Amino acid sequence: DAFAIALLREALERIGDSNPQLRALLLARLAMALAWSEEGAHRIALSREAAALASASGDSALILQVLLARWFAEWEPEGFENRWRIAEELMERARSSGDRETLLLCRLFWVTCLLERGEMVEFLRQVKLFEEAADVLRQREAQWYAALLRSVHALHEGRLADAEALSSRFV
After folding, report:
1. What SS3 state is found at 96?
2. How high is the pLDDT of residue 122?
3. CB-based contacts of 31: which residues, under 8 Å, 6+ apart?
4. At a CB cut-off of 8 Å and minimum separation 6, what does 151 contact?
5. Is 153 in contact with 120 (CB distance < 8 Å)?
6. Helix (H, G, I), strand (E, B) or coil at 58
7. Whole-structure pTM value
8. 36, pLDDT greater than 90
């Protein structure tokens, strides 16, 4: 979104280094906004700068938000091992925070990494936990993701009818 990218860049220019925590958040959001652009190296540099600022602040909530953005901003085939480490840290921090909604989002990123790595037993276990949390929190979008993840698993196993039934659940 060119408009959002321009606004984030302007905000970063205006605050300069005066507020490192806000700068970390803006850098993280800009890196996410650039996720589908051709600015791969720049996007990753922005996300890493955001992470360094957040880490220096010691603000756990900020670190968690920046890591979420960083995982997304660095979602590319070459960066899998780094995203895996980020996902591990996200899960640890989200569990410690006690914020169930943030844990739900972190678990979605974790599940994605498990799928990419082909760890299907743990993938299914985590999808079940994700689905249970989505139901408890009544998060309709997360419930849709759970059905999507189960559909992906059915496709992986060659169960096309099951995949179709699951994918149509929220259409």
Report:
1. helix
2. 96
3. 43, 44, 46, 47, 50, 69, 70, 73
4. 162, 163, 164, 166, 167
5. yes
6. coil
7. 0.87
8. no
**pLDDT digit string (tens) for 69-118?**
999 998 888 889 999 999 999 999 999 999 999 999 999 999 999 999 99
Q: Which helix (H) or strand (E) holds 162?
A: helix 160-167
Nearest CA to 104 out of 73, 60, 149 is that of 149
Would you place residue 171 in the very low, low, confident or very high pLDDT band (cuts 50, 70, 90)? low
Contact (Cβ atoms closer than 8 angstroms) between residue 102 and residue 94: yes
User: Max CA-CA distance within the chain?
Assistant: 57
Backbone angles phi, psi at 16, to 5 degrees: 55, -130
In the 8-state DSSP scheme, what is residue 78? G
For residue 89, give the nearest of 60, 118, 50, 53 by alpha carbon.
60
Q: Which H or E element spans position 157?
A: none
How many residues appear in the chain?
A: 171
Contact, 107 vs 123, CB < 8 A?
Answer: no
